[in-house]
Amino acid sequence: MRILLTGATGMVGRNLLEHSDAQNYVWLTPGRDKVDLRDRDQVRGFLKAEKPNFVIHAAGVVGGIQANIREPVRFLLDNLDIGRNVIAESRRAGVTRLLNLSCSCVYPRNAPNPLQESSLLQGEFEPTNEGYALARMAALKLCEAISKEDPSFAYKTLIASNLYGRFDSFDPSSSHMVPAVIAKVHAARFAHVAEVDIWGDGLARREFMLAGDLADCVLRAVERFDDLPALANVGTGEDHDINTFYSEIAAIVGFKGRFVHDLTKPSGMARKLLDVSRIAAWGWRAPTSLSDGLRKSYAFYQHDILNENIQ
Ligand SMILES: NC(=O)c1ccc[n+]([C@@H]2O[C@H](COP(=O)([O-])OP(=O)(O)OC[C@H]3O[C@@H](n4cnc5c(N)ncnc54)[C@H](OP(=O)(O)O)[C@@H]3O)[C@@H](O)[C@H]2O)c1
What share of the chain has pLDDT > 90, as a percent? Predict the structure, then answer.
């Protein structure tokens, strides 16, 4: 099978390509220099020339709250263009199977937890990433519409929880919570700092899945695509309070100091947990525990990020 993987240089894409089952397939992984996914003609030309028979769409303009607030037009427009081009041009090229990777930001901000697929579009998006969420929702709906109009096209979507793991960004200006805490606690340990601050009371709950586990789910989905649900959440099905992430990371890093809560800072939303019963009924559960996943992530930070910086 010839699989076009968009976003192959990203965190999700790289975890997919290094999964042991990836060797069962031929991968087409054009970089942005070869195919800018915002450009319909480039996408069309590539599909015509390379003729994949499966598409995994893992590209997108992804960023934190600050970037979404600063550049709402880019987050909306680039993601709309990328989604439209990859999905509609795959259909035009006659690719009958496509897996679209989406994220939990497509859920309404007030949807009840755990978030069920039936809650989609039942309320307004989180305003800070509205453009991004709207574009991702358009891609999801385009997949549904294509399959509805012609059932011989199976265009399906997996909605992933927050991720962490190998190939994460540890850049403090853009990193997500887990890599940011790893870098902060590691720095505190080696600078012999006695206290590390946690924003808010640390009681807000978060679900984070190892990106390697998402890769595992995606490869199972490729294998058994026919009976994969058309839409399903993928996560660990468990959340933990932020204090737990700090204490687990401290144990792995060897930080012996204390944590202090800065109650002048916001705690963030109370909870965001995906209901994973649909994907569990299909036969997949995230295999890696939080502590094993954090250990892998810390090893990546030490060996790949810090060594790179030293050279
Ligand atoms: N990371 C998470 O926590 C998370 C959670 C849930 C779902 N997801 C979903 O998983 C997907 C991938 O996320 P990620 O974490 O892997 O993001 P990432 O590390 O930022 O990677 C994004 C990928 O998209 C590519 N890309 C962006 N704009 C492009 C363009 N115009 N033309 C060609 N390629 C372009 C990037 O290429 P360059 O390297 O050239 O920039 C990169 O390969 C996204 O759809 C995201 O919503 C991610």
Answer: 89
